[in-house]
Amino acid sequence: xxxxxxxxxxxxxxxxxxxxxxxxxxxxxxxxxxxxxxxxxxxxxxxxxxxxxxxxxxxxxxxxxxxxxxxxxxxxxxxxxxxxxxxxxxxxxxxxxxxxxxxxxxxxxxxxxxxxxxxxxxxxxx
Amino acid sequence: xxxxxxxxxxxxxxxxxxxxxxxxxxxxxxxxxxxxxxxxxxxxxxxxxxxxxxxxxxxxxxxxxxxxxxxxxxxxxxxxxxxxxxxxxxxxxxxxxxxxxxxxxxxxxxxxxxxxxxxxxxxxxxxxxxxxxxxxxxxxxxxxxxxxxxxxxxxxxxxxxxxxxxxxxxxxxxxxxxxxxxxx
Lengths: 126, 184
Description:
The structure holds 2 protein chains of 2 kinds. Chain A has 4 helices and 5 strands; from the N terminus they run βαααββββα. By secondary structure, chain A is an alpha+beta fold. A 5-stranded mixed β-sheet of chain A has the order 1-5-4-3-2. In chain A, β2 and β3 (61-64) form a beta hairpin. In chain A, α1 crosses α2. Chain A is globular. Chain B is an all-alpha fold. The longest helix of chain B has 27 residues, at 127-153. The chains are: A alpha+beta, B mainly alpha. At the A-B interface, β1, α1 and α2 of A face β1, α1, α2 and α3 of B.
């Protein structure tokens, strides 16, 4: 059965992000639940990774976006922040590792940090 | 060793977030169980959203919107169309709110018996079909008995290994008994 584990530092990063962008974070986590459900029922990472809210990233990671997020009606612009929840699905251990979360502004740095975490996980699991 | 979670709601509950914010996020996830199921069913059929849209005569955007909607916002009409596009049949079950799990099991068991009896009715007068339905009853009996047995086994506590103590008096007795057997 597939499960979820948090990589080091995920909690703090999530806490900081959700403070500014709660709707986007909720939607990304809801999409993560769907990603997990697809993995559970199909056992196929390719099918899970083909979902429209999933984006391929380096090192076998994927980024889950904020599709379906509610727009705050009291915000002036009403636009949502493009969000990326970075995860790595390790097939042998049937585990989805939560690596990090961020927006377009921090994307480059987030990918680099999460890549290192993904490599550490792969080495640990080897 | 890092803690392992089976669902996202538990991940959120484990985090050091304000209680109200945690609840909002968990409620958000729980409010989309039906739309999530639609995505899972489509994925099980190895169908893309684009393909589903084509079968429905909808835009892909409309399919995408349905698959992220809050359950209360999904219309029965959309569910019927979507399940049709997937070659699925939709059935609804209404149960009393506080119905016990044991009673829910019984409801499903009675529903199963109704279907078996429907098969029996359909097979009447057709020797070939009666034989097949009889064989299916045997198959059901074995499979269901096994499934229930396996479920029951998982709740039985494993017997702890008993400590066997043998001291000199017991060893002497064993040797005497073996000697008697050898003479006999």
